[in-house]
Design brief:
The chain is α+β, with helices and mostly antiparallel strands. It is about 25% helix and about 35% strand. The protein contains four helices and six strands, in the order H-H-E-E-E-H-E-H-E-E. The chain has a six-stranded mixed β-sheet. The longest helix is centred in the middle third of the chain and has 15 residues. The protein is globular.
Length: about 150
Amino acid sequence: MEVMAGAFAPEFGEAWNRRQVSDSLLLTGTAYCLIGAEGSIDPDPEAATAGFALTRSIFDEEELLLFAVLPQYRGRGLGAALLTEVIARARLRGIRRLFLEMRRNNPAGKLYTGFGFRTVGVRPGYYRTASGERLDALSQELHLADN
């Protein structure tokens, strides 16, 4: 929850609360992955956590529900390492397509594009900022069977 609070800009309302996270973890097919400040996957509980991913799968499809790296750890390759692990774990479970949704101006879009995600849909005005501005949501997918 500390990473959630620090990684998501409050102006976009994208962070989940503790109840939303804990409820999602009770659902079949939900998984998470942590990355430590030094780049270790699923670090020791006493070590600093720099980022996390939360996913949910059904059959051979998976959705990246949340993906975050604390601002002070960005630009060090931790996001790429975390996404690489998420994709590797998905492949091990037989996932063929990975989906995500993000706001149009999300800086993480470059990371996702670099991994081969492509936009397959747009939800006009889906997100609303604290000031009332509307931002489109981009639905993206990555075909894992092809990679």
